[in-house]
Every structure is written in structure tokens, then in C-alpha cells.
Backbone:
């Protein structure tokens, strides 16, 4: 298929662009295979350069022959284009619609994108499982790398290499895989060096209604316990939901078969409940006419912050089991690809200082989200403005980022990166020129040959010029476990995401700049004092030498 | 002291306000003439001023003792368990007496002694000079003059002696108008905008009933509008909801009839009365105090309390004022019923938006002295300083502080002071430690001889200036840089640092603000160090060059020279490790947080075989 077939009108003059907090601009609108571009042709600058894949929904309306297209983006921005001529407007609208909903992944922009920057480090090889495992292997020999899933045959949503207890052989893993949802047998997610406790994650056990059991499964997870110690299974579903899952062949670990484990049920929502929540929240944030009561009741009704609180609480609970109770944890929900990953990865943010650095956080995203098989392509296909509701669309990753932001707010000096880093990840998860977030799991990515055909997001981000934008000037490495407050009074609406296009942040941005200036000035002064002190010391010794003979 | 029967109780438990378990600290409770003091086993002291106590409650006896719950006006809530009921009863009775004094003379300010002599004290009181402030605004001038009509408090007891009125308003007009205004509070100048030559004036409601009119009052309003050479039209802003104002007509009060006054535009802005505000805050505090509060209950509670709606209403009214002056160049007359609550809020906030002076530390003190203290905001009644009518208590001034806080959030660089300054002022409107906020009007304050018997708060705040400075303040802004806040609902947030100021666990564990504040201080010190070092180096060099050949001078090392940088391989010295201490995390303990209640579950001895469903239910509840 040629993009040209979809572009009926590639160019329209005298189009007016309206954006919040900017004056309207008149210019020429161009459609390319992957971008919508508006240029006023003054100083050769483009006023708008928008990826079609960032478009979530469009509305069109006409007043006489003047057409208006309202473009709603996946990053929640809303812009308006006034296009003279009904036919042009209709053409543009239908082209945008077609180009923003391409069926085939291989037609997406990452497959066409030619980077203009020099690649210093190929991001596709930045976070290899073997390297990650080396970080642990110095501390423990209880775990091993398993290549049982090399051909993605045991578990289609797992990566080829996983970390499992050393005492469990690949044959046992194959058996366990048949007992766990989607073949997702328990694997190591995090090793707490301080006390050797671990977080494992998996899919739900397929016990069904007649209480099927699997000796290898029991053996596998028991292998992670020390003699006489108990562990905790954190099921991210309520007991009720977990019980209902039995009727569909799923279920939960029966106490009789797992006597060394204590099960705790939490209730993290999934799928359309989260999607509805996002839609309601964005709707509330976009309506500036709400009076106070209406705003507060809409904010409440969206339930967004309730989800944030639930997820954070579960993560804190897991972290507490590890760090305070000295007990290992197995986390799963049903599939083990959503709430499981939220809880497991946030627990690491709390426990592990490395995951609060730029590299460490990237590694976490790579390991606990991309390789762990969070279906990004399904979950992030649409955002808050889409009307065609699909069961698999859900802002699971955005909720995770929101939770990280909440912790960042409470511990503003403990993260190497700033809020913009999180916002950037949100944007790229939904629409990007890079291949990183394409596909639903490693198996799909392999088939798409993303490593050969597209550029990794990390190749771009991990260059000094980009990294400096995401650096937190207040960062000072903090080796402690950080316990956030999950009280409703302590949680806040993430304005940088949800109010980003709805209010001017000029004064707040200026204040932030001033803060950075103070910090930089402090560093300069410290350096200067050091130099002067040394100089003085030298002069004084010289003096001493001269006087002594 | 006659109220104190027990001065010391041991083995008292202080419960965590939010924990659903009975986590507590054990310590000793002391009762002094002015404070309640709790010292826990870690020797940490909790001081509670008797005047800060809003209510004391003795709950039903439990197995561990008798619970005593104390709610404070600064939003601290403490929950003690006293082992013996007898002791609890004694303390309860003492606190009831001590927290509600019958006479001003028994308040803390009259016994507080900061070891200053009389002249220092007097100087303290002279720090804020309102005559000076009117001069700064640019009055008197050809249009406005000082009136001596109220010199002896003859016309209006609740106004100050010195009042500014239009030059063309004669004394009979003033007297006539005052008779037509509730409590005699006739229209006077609150703020004069020198650049626009427009004024903010304030008064109380007219006694118009359904049809009464008063020519003098009409003249006085006309005089105000004529005092504005640019725009003859003036706004009359009634800050009450229209319904309330109409109801007042039946009692012979009411609002201005536009037909009777020439050149006025009448406007209601709909701020609720003190009773609505009191119960609104009450509801807010009830929600916040709930243990195990859910997000939904928090937001629906916030909504039902109406608190943020009221804050927005006050802010919108102030913006209306600022716009009238900036955009239309029109003068504004503001009133509510008696003109000492909502009127004070709106006039002071409006001036703060218009004039950057009020956003400085000194200027903010002046603003409070002018629009609140001197114009007769009834601090003693609104704050419940004495045992009086609980229906007179209302958080009107707290709302003003909250509005200012919202402005500091939207304009982080516009204010010289920081949040701590607002919180400290709030602390002292209730503390009765200083004389400024005692009494309900200037006349009463003079009768109490406060300037002789008590101290002023302001010099004490200035002594601690460093604590209250905003490190991001940009002082470059012009005097008449107007603030234009955005009052979209989502810009109003719950002020956690005020209403939970003593609930440490709810706040961020690292404060960016404190770090920047300290860094700013450190920078000043470093600048000084650099100067010192440079002069020492210079001395050193001079000393050397005195004795050494001039040739060496040519090779003298300049601080910036690369020769120096490369030649030095001394180890970097670490300087002033202030930041490290600051960055350490306070209270980083899961037990401090809301999910902590699982700890109890963990620590329970587990029975050999737990019934599955039971165990699960326990862990998920």
C-alpha cells in the first residue's frame, strides 16, 4: 500500500491553527505519510509537526464552506485547524483518520524514521538480561539464567531468557508453565541484596474448580524460601474476583498445597475500568467552566486517584514484606501482565536506589515492562478521546508513571530524573518515532525485526544533550528504602500530564528556572572557594619557604 | 494557677491520629500556667498553648485508661490516654478553664515577658505606622484628605481614629452618612491606587430597608466618584449573596438602590456569611480527621464542605476589584453587612493583587494592620480568645491567608515571604501571646492599654526573617505589577500544610523549598568567603611582591589561570555539608504511613492452621 493513496489532498493553504495559550497562526498545511505539518513559512519554522499516530480522535464541522477539524491527541492535547474549502477539509479529515489508524505495524513511522543524530550507544543492546543478571550473581548463587523459552514456545509473552531458582531445571519449568496462565511460570523480578529476599511474578495458577495442583509449581516457589521461613503471595485481585476466575480455569494458590505461603488479596482494577477512569478524568480536566463542586465531584467520580492509591498501597505492601518482614513475595493477578507489573516495578522503586537513577529506571522499564510482556501495542492503541472502546485498551503504564510521579513528589531529591522524563515515556508509549514500545512482547518484536529495522528510544535518550533535559538538579543518591504516604491528602493530580494543555505554567516554569539557577550558582561558588583556598594555601607555603631559609 | 489541680501525670499515652491500630508513644504530661506539655520516652516535647485549645473531649473509659482528645485552633489534634480516670478528669477540668478565659487580662500576652525594656517594646509597636502607609499610597492629595471626624471615636466606635475621605465630603455629610450605615461604618478610603488615581473604599451596609434613602450618603458616594478624575462611574460591590442582602431589607438594612445614587454600578459577589464559613471548616476538618480515609471520601468531603468554593468566591471578588481599577480605572466601594469580615477579605486581597508592596514581608504586615486590625475585624470574637458566643467564631482571617497561599502557588516568585510566614501569623492570631490581635477594634485596644502591657508580634517575626524569606522571590517587579490569578476550579487545592501542619507523615519527606532556602543562605556565605579569600590572597601577594623581584609578579597566578588549575591536584574539600543533613529522609518508615496497619497483621503470632477465608478476610479488610 502506498501512503499516497490515502492522501487525497496533500497541501492546503490559508489554514488557521488554534492552540491553547498560543495566538492563532495562519499557514500551509501539509500531509505526509506519517506527519501533519503546519508551516506559516516565516523564518522557515513549522508551527506544528504532529505524528499521525499521536492522533486519538478527530471531529469536523462546517460553517458555510469553512471547515474546522478538531484534533484530539493521545497526549491529551486538543488543537483546531480551520480549513477553507469543504472538499479540502473533508479530504484532510478522511486522510488523517486513515493514516492515524493504520492496521499494519510495519507501516508505522518507526520503520521509516531516519535518525538525524549520531548514535553513541545502541539502545537495543543497553539492557541485556545477562548484564542485569550479573548484578545479582555477585550476591547470590541461588538463581540461574534459563533459556527454556528461547523459541518463545514455553511462554509466548516471556523473553527468551529468564531468571529462575537454580535448583529448578528447565523440564520442571515447562511443567509449571502449563499450570500458569499464559505459560507465565514464576520468575525472578527483584532480588533485595540487603537480606536476600525476592519478588517473583507469574500468571495465576490454573487450579480450576476442582483444585488442580502442580507439584513442580509448589517446588519452584518453595525453592525461593529459606528453611522455616514463610513467604507472601500478593494476589492483585480481590478474593471474590479470584474465586470467580476458578470457573474459567484460573484460580489462586490453595493454602493446603502452599502451606509456607500466606496469601493477601488486593484489588487493582484492570481493562475498561481504568480506561473509563482516564476518559472521565481527562474530560473533567478539559472543561474549564466547571464550578468548584462540579470539578471536585468529577475528579472524584473519575476514580483515577483511587486507582493510584490502590496500586501504590499494593507496591508498598510488597516492599514491606521484603524489607520489614524479611519474607519473599510472589505477585500475580490473572494474566500477570498488568497489575502484577505495576506492583512489582513500583516495589522496586521503593526498595532499590538504582531504579531511581536514569539508567536504572530505563532498565526497569525494559525488564519489568517490555521484556515482561506488557502488551503495549494493545494497551496504548488509543487514549482518552477514543470512542471505539476495546477491552484491551487501558492506561496501565500511565498509571504506573503516575505512581512514580507521586513518589517523586514526596522524595524530590531521591530521583536522578525529573518529571519531564516520565512525561516523555508516556508520550513515546503512545506515539513515537522509535521502535521500543511497538509490539506486545519480545516474541512479536523479534518477528518484526525491530532491532534491525527501527531505532531504540534509549539510543536517543541516553545522549548527554537529551539526558540534561531530564536531569533532576536536586538529585543526591539516597541509599535508603523510601516509603511514600498513600493518604488521599498526600496524593495529587498529576498536573504536568492532565492539566498540561489547560493552563499556562509560565510562572511555575520561571520559578523552576530560578531554582536551578540557585543550585548552579551554589556549585560555582563552591568550586571557586575551593580554588581560592588552594591558591591561598600554596601562597602561604611559598611564604613559609621563603621566610624559613 | 487556681485551676490546676494536677500538674504532672506519668504513663500517659499519645496515640497516632491516623493509625487504625493503637500505636502510641508513652510519656509524661505536664500542666503549666500557659502550656500543656507532653514529653515522650525519646524526650521529644510537644507543647500546646492553652489558648490554642479549641475543644477538649473526654471519651468513655477504656481498659487502657481514659481517653482525652484535644483539638487545637492551629489544627493540631492530640489523643491522649491517661491511665487513671481521676487524673484525666482533673486535667480535663483544668484545660476547660484554662482554654477559655473570661477576661482579657488573663490572656497570655499580659504575662508574656520576652525580656525587653519599655523603649524596645514601644519601638516594636511603632514598627508599623499607618500614617506612613497612607503617605506611601499617595494620600493626602488634592482629592483625598485626613478626616478628624472620628478622632474621639464619636461617629464610629469600631473604626480607627484616622480616616481618609474625599476632600469635598464635609463633616455634616460624613456624620449624616454614618447614621445611615450599619454600626456607623460610613464609606472611607482603604487603598488608593496612585497610578490610576482610583480608590478602594469600604463601609457597612446602608440602612435602606425597602425605600429609605439618605442624601448625605448619596453625596458621600458621589464625592468618592468625583475624587476619581478619570472615571466618574464607580462600582458598589456588595460581597454578600443577593438573597442575604435582600433579607436584610426586612430588618431595615439592605443595599444601595442604583436609582438613588448617581454614577454607581451595583454588584453582588456572593461570599457566604461567618456561620456558613464556620460550619464549612468544621466539615472539612471532620473529613480530614477520618481514619483510613479513602480517596473518594476525601474528595466528596472536600466538595461537601464547600471550603474551596468559598475560597474561590473570595478570590473572584478580589479579582473583580483589581480589574475594575486596572481595566476600567474605576473606584470601588466594598461592603457586606457590618463591613468587617468579607469586606476586610476582599479589600485586603484586592490591594495585594494591585500593589506589589503588600507582597513583601513588611508590606504584608502593614496590610494586616490596616485592613484587618485598624478597620475593626473582630479578632477576639472570630478567634474565640475569650469564653464568649461560639456563634461569633469564624475562620474569616484563615480564609484570607489561604487565598494568599493560593496566590503564592500560582506566582511562586511574586512574594517576598514564604508559606512558613503565613502559618506563623495564623499561629499567633490564636496564641494571644502578642497584643496585635487582642480585642475587636482600636478603641477597645486602647482601653486595654495593649501598647503598654503587651508586645507586638511583628518585630519578633522580623528577628526570624531568614525563616520567612522566599528564596525564589524576584524583587525586580514594579510596584504596580498586578497579579492576575486564574481561578479555574482545578487551580484550587487543599492546603495540606495548613490543615495537616502537625501530621508529619502526610507531607513530602524531602522539602525542595527548605533545600533551596538553605542553599540561598549558603550562597550568601560563600560569596563572603570568596571575598575574604581574595583579600587574603591579595595580602599574601603584596607581602611577597614587597620582598621579591618584580619579575615574579608577572608570573603571579590568577585564580582563573589554567596553569593553576592543572598544577593543582589537592583533594577537593567538601564545604559546609548543610545539604546532606537536609536531604536525609525524615521518618522514612513504613510504620509512619497509612498502609502500615498491615504491620500489626504481620506481627501477630499465627495459629498453626489458619482457615483460609478467615486469613484472607483479615488481610484485605
Residues:
Amino acid at each position: 500500500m502506498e501512503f499516497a493513496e490515502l492522501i487525497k489532498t496533500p497541501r492546503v493553504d490559508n489554514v488557521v491553527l488554534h492552540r491553547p495559550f498560543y495566538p492563532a497562526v495562519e499557514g500551509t498545511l501539509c500531509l505526509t505519510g506519517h506527519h501533519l505539518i503546519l508551516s506559516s513559512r516565516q523564518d522557515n519554522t513549522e508551527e506544528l509537526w504532529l505524528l499521525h499516530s499521536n492522533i486519538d480522535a478527530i471531529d469536523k464541522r462546517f460553517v458555510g464552506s469553512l471547515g474546522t477539524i478538531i484534533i484530539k491527541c493521545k497526549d491529551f492535547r486538543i488543537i483546531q485547524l480551520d480549513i477553507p474549502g469543504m472538499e479540502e477539509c473533508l479530504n484532510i479529515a478522511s486522510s488523517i483518520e486513515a493514516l492515524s489508524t493504520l492496521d499494519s505495524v510495519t507501516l508505522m513511522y518507526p520503520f521509516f524514521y531516519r535518525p538525524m543524530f549520531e548514535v553513541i550507544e545502541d539502545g537495543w543492546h543497553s539492557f541485556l538480561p545477562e548484564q542485569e543478571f550479573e548484578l545479582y550473581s555477585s550476591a547470590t548463587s541461588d538463581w540461574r539464567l534459563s533459556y527454556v523459552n528461547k523459541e518463545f514456545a514455553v511462554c509466548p509473552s516471556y523473553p527468551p531468557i529468564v531468571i529462575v531458582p537454580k535448583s529448578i531445571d528447565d523440564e520442571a519449568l515447562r511443567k509449571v508453565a502449563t499450570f500458569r496462565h499464559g505459560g507465565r511460570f514464576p520468575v525472578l523480578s527483584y532480588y533485595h541484596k540487603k537480606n536476600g529476599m525476592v519478588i517473583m511474578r507469574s500468571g495465576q495458577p490454573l487450579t480450576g474448580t476442582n483444585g488442580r495442583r502442580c507439584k513442580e509449581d509448589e517446588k519452584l516457589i518453595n525453592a525461593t524460601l529459606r528453611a522455616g521461613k514463610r513467604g507472601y503471595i500478593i494476589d492483585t485481585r480481590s478474593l471474590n474476583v479470584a474465586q470467580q476466575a476458578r470457573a474459567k480455569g484460573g484460580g489462586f494458590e490453595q493454602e493446603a498445597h502452599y502451606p509456607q505461603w500466606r496469601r493477601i488479596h488486593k484489588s487493582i482494577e484492570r481493562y475498561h475500568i481504568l480506561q473509563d477512569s482516564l476518559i472521565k478524568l481527562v474530560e473533567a480536566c478539559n472543561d474549564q467552566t466547571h464550578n468548584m463542586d462540579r470539578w471536585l465531584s468529577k475528579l472524584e467520580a473519575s476514580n483515577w486517584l483511587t486507582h493510584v492509591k490502590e496500586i501504590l498501597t499494593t507496591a508498598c505492601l510488597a516492599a514491606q514484606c521484603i524489607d520489614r518482614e524479611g519474607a519473599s513475595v510472589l505477585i500475580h493477578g490473572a494474566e500477570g501482565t498488568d497489575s502484577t507489573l505495576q506492583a512489582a516495578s513500583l516495589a522496586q522503586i521503593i526498595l532499590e536506589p538504582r531504579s531511581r537513577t536514569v539508567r536504572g529506571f530505563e532498565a526497569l522499564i525494559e525488564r519489568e515492562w517490555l521484556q515482561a510482556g506488557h502488551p503495549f501495542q494493545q494497551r496504548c492503541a488509543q487514549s482518552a478521546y477514543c470512542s471505539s472502546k476495546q477491552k484491551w485498551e487501558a492506561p496501565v503504564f500511565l498509571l504506573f508513571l503516575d505512581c512514580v510521579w507521586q513518589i517523586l513528589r514526596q522524595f524530590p531529591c531521591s530521583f536522578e530524573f525529573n518529571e519531564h522524563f516520565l512525561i516523555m515515556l508516556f508520550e513515546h508509549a503512545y506515539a513515537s518515532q522509535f521502535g521500543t514500545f511497538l509490539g506486545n512482547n519480545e516474541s512479536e518484536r523479534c518477528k518484526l525485526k525491530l532491532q534491525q529495522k527501527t531505532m531504540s528510544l534509549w539510543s536517543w535518550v541516553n545522549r548527554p544533550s537529551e539526558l540534561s533535559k531530564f536531569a533532576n538538579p536536586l538529585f543526591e543518591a539516597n541509599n535508603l528504602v523510601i516509603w511514600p504516604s498513600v493518604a488521599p491528602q498526600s496524593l495529587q493530580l498529576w498536573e504536568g500530564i492532565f492539566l498540561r494543555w489547560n493552563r499556562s505554567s509560565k510562572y511555575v516554569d520561571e520559578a523552576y528556572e530560578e531554582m536551578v539557577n540557585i543550585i548552579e550558582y551554589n556549585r560555582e561558588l563552591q568550586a571557586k572557594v575551593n580554588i581560592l583556598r588552594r591558591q591561598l594555601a600554596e601562597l602561604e607555603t611559598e611564604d613559609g619557604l621563603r621566610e624559613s631559609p | 494557677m487556681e485551676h490546676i489541680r494536677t500538674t504532672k501525670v506519668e504513663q500517659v499515652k499519645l496515640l497516632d491520629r491516623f493509625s487504625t491500630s493503637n500505636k502510641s508513644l508513652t510519656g509524661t504530661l505536664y500542666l503549666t500556667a500557659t502550656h500543656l506539655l507532653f514529653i515522650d520516652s525519646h524526650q521529644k516535647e510537644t507543647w500546646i498553648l492553652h489558648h490554642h485549645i479549641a475543644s477538649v473531649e473526654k471519651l468513655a473509659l477504656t481498659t487502657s485508661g481514659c481517653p482525652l482528645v484535644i483539638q487545637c485552633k492551629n489544627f493540631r489534634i492530640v489523643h491522649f490516654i491517661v491511665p487513671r480516670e481521676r487524673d484525666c478528669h482533673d486535667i480535663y477540668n483544668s484545660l476547660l478553664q484554662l482554654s477559655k478565659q473570661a477576661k482579657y487580662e488573663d490572656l497570655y500576652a499580659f504575662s508574656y515577658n520576652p525580656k525587653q525594656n519599655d523603649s524596645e517594646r514601644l519601638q516594636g509597636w511603632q514598627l508599623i505606622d499607618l500614617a506612613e502607609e497612607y503617605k506611601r499610597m499617595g494620600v493626602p492629595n488634592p482629592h483625598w484628605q485626613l478626616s478628624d471626624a472620628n478622632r474621639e471615636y464619636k461617629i464610629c466606635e469600631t473604626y480607627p481614629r484616622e480616616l481618609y475621605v474625599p476632600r469635598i465630603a464635609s463633616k455634616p455629610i460624613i456624620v449624616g452618612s454614618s447614621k445611615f450605615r450599619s454600626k456607623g461604618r460610613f464609606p472611607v478610603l482603604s487603598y488608593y491606587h496612585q497610578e490610576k488615581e482610583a480608590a478602594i473604599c469600604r463601609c457597612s451596609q446602608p440602612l435602606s430597608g425597602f425605600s429609605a434613602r439618605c442624601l448625605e450618603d448619596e453625596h458621600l458616594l458621589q464625592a468618592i466618584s468625583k475624587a476619581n478624575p478619570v472615571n466618574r462611574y464607580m462600582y458598589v460591590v456588595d460581597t454578600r449573596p443577593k438573597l442575604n442582602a435582600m433579607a436584610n431589607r426586612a430588618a431595615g438594612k439592605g443595599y444601595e438602590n442604583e436609582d438613588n445614587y448617581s454614577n454607581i454600578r451595583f454588584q453582588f459577589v456572593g461570599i457566604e456569611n461567618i456561620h456558613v464559613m464556620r460550619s464549612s471548616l468544621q466539615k472539612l476538618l471532620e473529613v480530614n480527621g477520618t481514619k483510613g480515609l479513602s480517596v473518594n471520601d476525601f474528595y466528596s468531603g472536600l466538595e461537601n464542605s464547600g471550603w474551596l468554593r468559598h475560597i474561590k468566591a473570595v478570590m473572584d471578588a478580589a479579582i473583580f476589584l483589581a480589574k475594575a481599577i486596572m481595566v476600567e480605572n474605576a473606584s470601588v466601594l466594598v461592603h457586606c453587612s457590618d463591613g468587617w469580615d468579607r469586606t476586610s477579605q476582599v479589600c485586603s486581597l484586592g490591594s495585594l493583587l494591585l500593589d506589589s508592596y503588600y507582597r513583601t514581608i513588611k508590606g504584608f504586615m502593614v496590610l494586616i494592620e490596616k485592613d484587618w486590625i485598624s478597620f475593626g475585624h473582630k479578632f477576639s470574637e472570630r478567634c474565640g480568645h475569650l469564653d464568649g458566643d461560639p456563634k461569633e467564631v469564624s475562620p474569616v482571617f484563615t480564609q484570607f491567608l489561604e487565598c494568599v497561599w493560593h496566590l503564592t502557588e500560582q506566582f511562586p516568585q511574586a512574594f517576598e515571604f514564604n508559606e512558613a510566614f503565613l502559618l506563623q501569623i495564623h499561629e499567633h492570631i490564636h496564641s494571644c501571646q502578642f497584643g496585635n490581635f487582642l480585642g475587636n477594634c482600636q478603641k477597645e485596644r486602647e482601653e486595654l492599654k495593649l501598647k503598654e502591657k503587651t508586645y507586638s508580634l511583628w518585630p519578633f517575626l522580623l528577628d526570624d526573617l531568614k525563616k520567612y524569606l522566599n528564596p525564589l522571590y524576584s524583587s525586580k517587579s514594579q510596584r504596580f505589577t498586578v497579579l492576575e490569578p486564574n481561578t479555574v476550579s482545578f487551580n484550587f487545592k487543599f492546603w495540606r500544610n495548613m490543615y495537616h501542619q502537625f501530621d508529619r507523615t502526610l507531607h513530602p519527606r524531602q522539602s525542595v523549598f527548605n533545600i533551596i532556602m538553605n542553599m540561598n543562605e549558603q550562597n550568601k556565605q560563600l560569596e563572603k568567603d570568596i571575598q575574604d579569600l581574595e583579600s587574603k590572597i591579595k595580602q599574601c601577594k603584596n607581602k611577597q611582591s614587597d620582598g621579591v623581584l618584580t619579575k615574579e609578579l608577572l608570573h603571579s597566578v590568577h585564580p582563573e589561570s589554567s596553569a593553576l588549575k592543572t598544577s593543582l591536584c589537592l583533594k577537593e574539600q567538601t564545604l559546609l555539608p548543610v545539604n546532606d543533613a537536609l536531604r536525609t529522609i525524615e521518618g522514612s518508615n513504613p510504620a509512619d504511613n497509612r498502609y502500615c496497619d498491615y504491620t500489626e497483621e504481620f506481627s501477630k503470632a499465627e495459629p498453626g492452621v489458619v482457615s483460609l477465608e478467615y486469613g484472607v478476610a483479615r488481610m484485605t479488610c
The longest strand of chain B covers residues 8-15.
